[in-house]
Design brief:
- The protein is α+β, with helices and mostly antiparallel strands.
- The chain has four domains: 185 residues, FAD/NAD(P)-binding domain; 83 residues, no CATH class; 96 residues, D-Amino Acid Oxidase, Chain A, domain 2, CATH 3.30.9; 90 residues, no CATH class.
- The strands form three sheets. Strands 3, 4, 5, 6, 11, 12, 13, 14, 15 and 16 form a ten-stranded mixed β-sheet that branches. Strands 1, 2, 7, 8, 9, 10, 17, 18 and 19 form a nine-stranded mixed β-sheet that branches.
- Strand 1, helix 2 and strand 2 form a beta-alpha-beta unit.
- The chain is globular and about 70 Å long.
Length: 535
Amino acid sequence: MPPVAQPLQTLREDLLARLGEDREYDLAVVGGGATGLGVALDAAARGFSVVLLESHDFAKGTSSRATKLVHGGVRYLAQGNISLVREALHERTTLLRNAPHLAQPLAFVVPSYHWWEAPFYGIGLTLYDVLAGKAGLGKTHFLGPQATGEALPTVRTDGLKGGVQYWDGQFNDARLALAIGRTAVTRGALLVNYCAATGLLYEGGKISGVLAQDSLSGKDYRVRSRCVVNATGVWVDALREMDSPAHSAAGGRAVEPMVAPSQGVHIVVDRKFLDSDTALMVPKTSDGRVLFAVPWLGKVILGTTDTPRNDLAREPLAFAEEVEFILRESARYLRKAPTRADIKSIWVGLRPLVKPQDDDAESTKALSREHTVIVSRTGLVTVTGGKWTTYRAMAEDVLDMCAAKGLLERRAAGQTADLRLVGAQFGPEFSPVSVSQAEGEHSYGSEMQILAGLPGADVALTAGLTEAMVRFAARHEYAVTVEDMLARRSRLLFLDARLAARLAPRVAEILREETGLDPRADEFAGLAAQYLPTP
């Protein structure tokens, strides 16, 4: 039976009191993004005692900044990586089944302006269907010019030869991250956000836990555990460097950087620029990149770029040329293309691209071209790379590695394959709503009943956001700051940064009432400005 979310104790005093207890966990996870939360859920589902520490907010980094697609990776077909595509397609179906309130199928159309494009892409997408097998979401089929225009009413019709329609999935990434973490809590895990790992504990030359600090109070904690997993995404090298002195003392050399970050930029505009629940996909733009126009929560996402970066900024800014590229390429396919003045929000995510590792320096196992797990001589398990769609398979790989290295005993895998996430237990009065439709109560699934009983359930701050949702976020979803609420519990900052800034003062008042903590409203005003194009 799916887990039913119980009212969680979200007051930090109680969470930190539990963190301060004198006990040893089986597993300590550092990093509260998709990967870390997935590992925590998998381990807790197998019966291990788990604590997860996140230095900022859950899904604050890359995991809330995806293109919102649950996909098998069409581009990997061209690379001949059939096994990777097959795995991702399997996981796509698993994710949609276990979180139908947050992820649903989405149709895509590839428009064709040259005679060869439809058959060329159609063959590859038909193979995509074959690899999906019974896990397919819908059949690929060819469209004539009229049918392509009906599916994409705003597509440029001059020279349009037709198109190819195929199916993938779409989801609400930040809310899915919360659902994964909260499901882990129903299995006994302790999750603490705003609690940074400041060092590692050792016993006999092996890692025995984590030093942590509450980012809000400055209080320090010693968290003992049999195994430590570094799941901090593009920031994994920082924790690996903390492990470096012990690593060197054990006869190794200082660690080399594992991640080369790449930046992906997304632009959000009004729905009118696409005017469809079908997404537009361009497999090859003028410079060889992929372009999407994706309906999402009542708006349209345009993107994405893939630009190397040398820094690891928590709030990376879009390069001017990236914004111009997206707008320019959109104009090649949309009759009325958006301009800078039409941009509602710009958001940037850093992707962890994994560098090859020296087997002599660390025990290494490259589990796929998408994600990598390594174990240092001191026992620090590091996982990075990958994508949202395969978060569950990545977690299983991490636990397999922990068992292979004797850090945890081997317990039966597959515990999360049919584990419905919090909110996925529906009654007869509820049916999932497409993620492409406007933001609202549908993303809460079966927890809508709890939401309806909170103060302010009938007080709308804006369409799709009520005062009760803010109280729910504080009581059940670990929200502390205005950013937590308006960027990740609600996605308003990602949908309309100006509107989010206007609502911030009232959201801050409610959060302060609920938590007694500083909601950092002033910081949010500056943040919202960064999500808008520069003059």
